[in-house]
Design goal:
Order of helices and strands: EEEHEEEEHEHEHHEHEHEHEH
Distance between the termini: 63 Å
Number of helices: 9
Shape: globular
Oligomer: single chain
Radius of gyration: 19 Å
Number of strands: 13
Number of domains: 2
Structural class: alpha/beta
CATH architecture of the largest domain: 3-Layer(aba) Sandwich
């Protein structure tokens, strides 16, 4: 059996059993030990989405060897569509950008954020959702992000990795992308609406500048995105507790939302991918889109 030599920091060890998971076996979260064991494996690609602010987060200051850089704020992971910020870009556009990073049908993508707090880690959950809605299941997030890699004495490189462009073909999954029409229907049908914003925004005591008016969508329940992450992402047991405390029905269809579909992706990832709940979608336009139409109710 072939032996693979892997370096983690200054330590080196030999694997006699391949640890790399085939794309269809990709887990939503992987830890630093798993990534160290699989780094350099065929078809594994780390995408570093950290924005270079503060400078300590900069890709050039030190990144996982072999990782390609595609900053969350600058690469085009989200787009303004019909005046609404933070939307899923046109399928052809985002597919071309993903292909330019070297992601093909058999590529197992590992997404890397810094891991500094829940909102920053939400960059990874939003990009993860993008891959899922485009039909690419071979995607994981490094739990704890770059901070976890550093804590494990993971090797770093300052030399940029040149992406090897390929063709990425999307298989769009509309069931993961909720629309305003679906949200209107959810107000009166059994579908659960989950507001992932902080409690003061949910209560209408504070408002994001991108939202026309304060408040939330009628019948929505609050599940603050910050409750899902504290250095590591919540496990399925904690997510079950959070869901119960919020009064959510795990068997009901569920739509998550926030202001622009960023915090909503954290709640979506927690409920669907880690919590194992079926039939969970995300409203990427969220309240920035919903509140544009004065006919759409807020409470």
């Amino acid at each position: 059996m072939n032996q693979i030599l892997i370096a983690l920091g200054t330590a080196a060890f030999v694997l006699t059993t391949p640890a790399f998971a085939a794309p269809h076996q990709a887990q939503p979260l992987v830890d630093a030990a798993w990534l160290a064991q699989n780094l350099g494996a065929p078809n594994l690609l780390v995408i570093d989405i950290r924005d270079p602010k503060p400078p300590a987060f900069a890709y050039g200051a030190g990144h996982i060897p072999g990782a390609v850089s595609a900053p969350y704020g600058d690469y085009g992971w989200r787009a303004k569509v019909n005046g609404v910020p933070g939307m899923l870009p046109p399928i052809a556009d985002i597919s071309a950008k993903i292909g330019a990073l070297g992601v093909g049908a058999n590529t197992h993508v590992v997404i890397l954020a810094q891991g500094s707090d829940s909102s920053e880690f939400g960059k990874a959950t939003r990009v993860y959702w993008t891959f899922k809605v485009l039909g690419h299941d071979a995607v994981s997030i490094l739990d704890g992000g770059q901070n976890a890699w550093l804590a494990a004495n993971g090797a770093l490189s300052t030399a940029p990795t040149t992406a090897q462009p390929t063709t990425f073909t999307a298989a769009f999954r509309p069931e993961l992308l909720a629309t305003a029409d679906a949200v209107r229907a959810a107000i009166t049908d059994p579908t659960e609406l989950v507001d992932g914003r902080p409690i003061k925004q949910f209560q209408g005591k504070e408002k994001s500048p991108v939202v026309r008016a304060a408040g939330t969508i009628p019948t929505a329940l609050n599940l603050d995105q910050s409750s899902f992450y504290s250095g590591k992402f919540a496990d399925s047991g904690l997510i079950s507790q959070l869901r119960t405390a919020a009064g959510l029905d795990a068997s009901a269809p569920t739509i998550t939302f926030c202001n622009t579909g960023h915090w909503a992706s954290i709640a979506w990832f927690g409920l669907s991918e880690v919590g194992g709940q079926e039939n969970v979608s995300m409203y990427d336009g969220s309240l920035a889109d919903w509140s544009q139409d004065p006919k759409n109710p807020l409470q």
